[in-house]
Amino acid sequence: MSREQTPEQKVTALALAALRFDGPGLVVLLADLPDDEVRTACGFALQAICEGFHSILNDEAWLAVVASAQAHAASLAHDS
């Protein structure tokens, strides 16, 4: 039986999916949000933020951002 995610875990999972450009994963996570308007706004915002960061970072820095988000997600999972 899985536990309910905390709000911080949900936001981190959404951010990580966006950082990885994981469209299918992002769709699954966005489906858990309360309504269409919120899902759409979150999806577009995350995509725009990640594309903006990706455009100004070199590949090594981008991988460091993704690794940091993964470490944070792992830390949240461990703490719960």
Report on the structure:
With 80 residues, the protein is mainly α. The chain contains four helices and no strands. The mean pLDDT is 85.
Sheet bearing the most strands, described?
none
Which spans have pLDDT < 50 for at least 5 consecutive residues?
A: none
Helical content stands at over 70%
Structural class: mainly alpha
Strand content: under 5%
The total strand number stands at 0
* Total of helices: 4
Radius of gyration of CA atoms, rounded to a whole number: 13 Å
N-to-C order of helices and strands: HHHH
Q: What spatial form do the alpha-carbon principal axes imply? A: flat
Q: First CA to last CA: what distance? A: 14 Å
Indicate the mean pLDDT.
Answer: 85
How do you describe this structure in short?
The chain has 80 residues and is mainly α. The protein contains four helices and no strands.
Main attributes of the structure:
80 residues, mainly alpha
How do the helices and strands line up, and which of them pair or pack?
Blueprint: H1 7-19, H2 23-30, H3 36-56, H4 59-79
